[in-house]
Amino acid sequence: MRWKVAILTTSDRGARGERESTSALVIRELVEEELHGDIVEDRVVPDEIDDVMAALIEMSEYHEAHLILTTGGSGLGARDITPEATRQVIDREIPGFPELIRASQAARNIRPALFRGTAGQRGRTLIVNLPGRPKGVSTAMMAIIADLEAAMRKLSGKEDDFEE
């Protein structure tokens, strides 16, 4: 099955066209090569909770993405609101993904305590916050890639039980 994946970059400068999201490029490459997914939307929004929430809702409902991966806005900056916006739109949290991300960051000394990202389910869509920097994104994606596919299969009704 080809997974429909959306990428959401949260960045004030990116939304103004002052910076390209190299993290989104890393996500795109890993989704296409490792998950064999199709990117159905790739958007940049400012660090505004309403903009992030609206994008997540649209990506899950209009684009019917199986997976939404966010980058940016998950640190300690004053305008980092991606986890809060995500929690507002999900039906329930899935704490294992951020736990795996933090563990992978700890193994590579990438300051895991500063990553506040979350993950959750909105209907049949899995939403996962990733770090904002390319190295952090790559490390995080490789840590969760196998579990992403298992979760999407479960949420889409393609798998009744997880394989051991």
SSE inventory with pairings:
Elements: E1 4-10, H1 12-15, H2 22-35, E2 38-45, H3 49-61, E3 67-71, H4 82-89, E4 92-93, H5 96-107, E5 119-122, E6 125-130, H6 134-155
Low-pLDDT stretches are none
Q: How many strand units?
A: 6
The total number of structural domains is: 1
What is the straight-line distance between the termini? 20 Å
- Strand content is 15-25%
Helix content: 40-55%
The helix-and-strand class reads: alpha/beta
Computed Rg: 14 Å
The dominant shape is globular
Strand order of the largest sheet: 2-1-3-6-5-4
* Overall CATH architecture: 3-Layer(aba) Sandwich
* SSE arrangement, N to C: EHHEHEHEHEEH
Query: Please, what is the average pLDDT?
Result: 92
Quick one: CATH class? Answer: Alpha Beta
Q: How many distinct helices?
A: 6
**CATH superfamily heading:** MoaB/Mog-like domain
Query: What is the third-level CATH name, the topology?
Result: Molybdenum Cofactor Biosythetic Enzyme, Chain A
The largest sheet, given as strand count, sense and whether it forms a barrel, is:
6 strands, mixed
